[in-house]
Amino acid sequence: MSHYLLRRLLLMIPLLIGITLISFTVIHLAPGEPTDLQTQMNPQASGDLQARLHKNYGLDKPLHQQYLLWLQRLVKLDFGDSFAQDNRPVRDKIAERLPVTITLNLLSLATILLVALPLGVISAVRRNSLFDRATTVLVFTGFAMPSFWLALLLMDWFGVRLGWLPVSGLKSLGYEYLSFSGQIFDRISHLLLPVFIAAIGGLAGFSRYMRSNMLEVIRQDYIMTARAKGLSEGVVIYKHALRNALLPVITILGLSVPGLIGGSVIFETIFAIPGMGKLFYDGVMMRDYPLIMGVLVIGAVLTLVGNLLADLSYALADPRIRQGG
Amino acid sequence: MRWVSLLTLLWLTSCTQDASLLGLDDSIDESPAFGDTFIEGSIGDASTLLPVLASDSSSSQINGLIYNGLVRYDGQLEVVGELAESWDISADNLTITFHLRTNVFWHDGVPFTSADVLFTYQLYIDPETPTAYAESYLQVKKAEAPDPYTFVVTYAQPYAPALLSWGMAVLPRHLLSGKKITESPLARRPVGTGPFKFVEWQGGEKIVLEANRDYFAGSPYIKRYLFRIIPDTSTQFLELQTGGLDFMSLSPLQYDRQTDTLAFRRLFNKYRYLSFGYTYLGYNLKRPMFQDQRVRQALSYAIDKQEIIDGVLMGHGEIATGPYKTDTWVYNKNVPRYAYNPQKARQLLAEAGWQDNDGDGVLDKNGARFQFVIVTNQGNDQRTKAGEIIQRRFRDIGIDVQLRVIEWATFLKEFINPGNFDATLLGWTGGPEPDQYEIWHSSKTGPRQLNFIGYKNAEVDALLEKGRRTFDQQQRKKIYDRFQQILAEDQPYTFLFIPEALPAVASRFHGIEPMPAGIRYNFEQWYVPQALQKYSR
After folding, report:
1. How far apart, in Å, do the first and last CA atoms of chain A sit?
2. Which fold has domain A2-28+54-324?
3. Where are the domains of chain A?
4. Of the candidates A23, A14, A9, A37, which has an alpha carbon nearest to the alpha carbon of residue A70?
5. A165 and chain B: CB distance < 8 Å anywhere?
6. Most buried residue among A80, A142, A232, B239 by CB atoms closer than 10 A?
7. pLDDT on residue B7
8. What is the strand order of the sheet B84-89 is part of?
9. For residue B19, what pLDDT is reported?
């Protein structure tokens, strides 16, 4: 097992270098440069500013040298300084945004699991019932609905008309002066709408997935055996069937790991949440190469780690795979 | 003494405030009082709070409250002293001597002196400083600080925009000297001399400032200033309605249709005034089809500008006839106008040789069809909509026009820089200074320069050169009147419209007096009467 783990970890290194090389090349292929955006269409900018900025950012060197320099810094876990006007270290900019995005994504993932798994199980057990059909319609409506539109409607309804929930942001003005319980309440009330909106789109996928897994498992011989033994229906479904149906969900969870740091631009824009999505989007629009590369590298590492985790936990959970490997 | 000034202020404001609109009874004491928080929404975060490095509007907005220049504009767009109490301009117009205020302190308590001004100037012209604002300071031949409260600059040639260029923010020498400017911590924790002091900045979320009680021109009334970053304007509008914002710029649709309720008018005051900036359709004069003046005039006749203003801005704008705002001293109202007239457009095109010879509905000349592409940048809805309206009007007179909307960085790199476009729909934002040298002078047609349409006119060149060397306003007016006349005849751009700014401000804020400069010029004088104050901390 440890040999397998080591091999997988070592294999990740060339894979990661390959990913960064391709990303680096592709973002430099995109037309436009960071310096254009700072100097152009500005009557005050003098002629040699472009050249000065070029030198400042190291953009005057050939591309392969730029890549090697970047790689050298990366080895020391230094993502470099952003090309945006603030010139801040990319690491700081990402660290500032990451907690918010991870919190929101964890909460919405938990919400999705809490709602979607029971929905899927019940739909499978009562296949083609009214409940099954109704949830199908419901989750697919949620999936198909443009989230920004739903978000605006809910913000208008709960925020403006009823005045129950705050419209946007993460904290109220004067949050510092609230009592501890008041702060918690304030946080929760700000998170309710965003988490609901983030979760509603994901319900369809997970609940459908759970439903089909469950249907598959229920047809298996060992379920029939369990029933034949005279076990109650509850024990059959929730003990024997559910455990087996949950196995593939582990894979999906592993693949969700990189998604935890990704944010949706539209979602963050609507709710005025300073998260990773907006940071990355603005970085791309500004051709802020160090920032783009920083976010991509973290994403790539998490994807690789997520894959590995999924494989490992699958092996741990399922004896058949463990023996086969 | 303090009482007298308060009383005059009260008298002034009571003339302009309509108490009935606020739904208040008269018993409330409306005298200026210190306190409360002003919350403003912005679609973008600031990038750096060092004005020398900043070039985005969010940063400028905050920097304007934290720092001072030597001079500034007042509400009437006249130049008045800020850190400079007064100034003398030598008879040959080459030397400006600024007499600085002696009672100014940096927010950390260190006195402000002419050494700070000299340091700031040197910082701007330092080749190591990546600033976008070096141009006007590179015109300076010599700058000196003979004593702590005198600053003297000498120019090689008379330079009319000189005085205004000293409106740039003066930076603290004692905190920046000898350090690399791009690594200064002041970019995140600024120290200025201005009416507001920095408190905190949470990236992507908010920037908080508080009143500088020791401000040399008197403390502002508003105690705290909160700059909230809300990237979506629909969300901003919802926040405004719930009281989460006290100020936002409304869209024409919001201004006309969504805020015309009694409840909104009780809580907010709406203002409207012409903004500094115009939208235009610029023709690439290196393309043969646009080289004929009659063709450009015909295109201007073919566009119904009022239709665009009504359709895109819901009437909240004025027709532009040149590069200047219609309510400024430099504006020439007697230039040729191009009222919508498709017959005239067809006639001018026929004179230039463009006719529909093959009967396919599109004009042609020597076998070539009259077709071209208008390019504009993504993300500006007004430009895209205006482009669609123009496209239809051009088709009406037999010109086949395509509209392409392109992401900004790509737009600059692939189309504007290499001059690879037929016509482009863009806008310029200006200020009260009429110098237009960078945009229209024939020496500015090179790559990455602003005369990217390639406009070359010897008389315009001479006028622009003379204009920036002339100090007397009456003489300048004559020069720029002629300049506008030539532009209007030549139509290198079809000048389209000047949009209105449409801000809404919570009605508890008093002391707002709309002027040609807008409403923000006297922000330090805004106040909330004690009884109406919303935030106590």
Report:
1. 9
2. MetI-like fold (1.10.3720)
3. 2-28+54-324
4. A23
5. no
6. B239
7. 33
8. B84-89, B95-100, B150-155, B140-147
9. 39
CB contacts, 8 Å: B410 with chain A: 30-32
Can you read off the two tokens belonging to residue B322?
A: 């040149």
pLDDT for position B154: 95
Chain A contact present for B187, CB below 8 A: yes
Q: Please answer yes or no on whether B130 and A159 come within 8 Å at the CB atom.
A: no
Q: Which residues is B515 bridged to in the sheet?
A: B518
- What the block records as the tokens of B398 is 């037999």
> Among B444, B457, B447, which residue's Cα sits nearest to residue B492?
B457
CB contact under 8 A, A173 and B413: no
Question: Which of chain A's residues have a Cβ under 8 Å away from the Cβ of B228?
Answer: 169, 272
B429 in A contact zone (CB under 8 Å): no
Q: Which residue has the tokens 């001004």?
A: B117
Question: pTM, whole model, 2 decimals?
Answer: 0.82
Domains and CATH numbers, chain B: 6-49+194-272+502-532 (3.40.190.10), 68-182 (3.90.76.10), 277-500 (3.10.105.10)
Give pLDDT < 50 ranges for chain A.
324-325
Tokens of A70: 């970047």
Q: Which H or E run contains B117? A: helix B114-125
| Global ipTM | 0.78
Show residues of chain A in contact with B451, CB under 8 Å.
none
Contacts of A169 in chain B (CB under 8 A): 205, 228, 230, 244
Q: Which ranges of chain B have pLDDT less than 70?
A: 1-28, 537
